[in-house]
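One-letter codes give the sequence; the fold follows as tokens. An example follows:
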Amino acid sequence: FYDRIFAHPELQHFFANINRVTLEEQQTSFMAAKMGGDNAFTGKTPENCHIRMFITKELFDLRNKLYKESILDCGISGDLLDRWMAINNAFERLIVKKDPSECKKRFIGDEIIYPINWPKP
């Protein structure tokens, strides 16, 4: 999944300066907890880690397409795929923003991250 994300021209800049290994570990523990495994997740909530990113519905859908392709490539299908995607989609309302004004900086030095072709203020 992250091979696709880090290589995609519309998504890769959202992950600049982010440690990929840490990101993969957090995503794994987050989904494991959501799927009923041990709750060892200690990362930020989806809302908090995406708060400074202007993620449109189109970008969310693109990410979901890559996510689903990656899951299918691992041989997961049927009810398990549906469950996995339902958990993933449950966070759409916390991540997708209709306007850049919905973005917030977590720290003073943070910048709002916009879609690649979005006119920056």
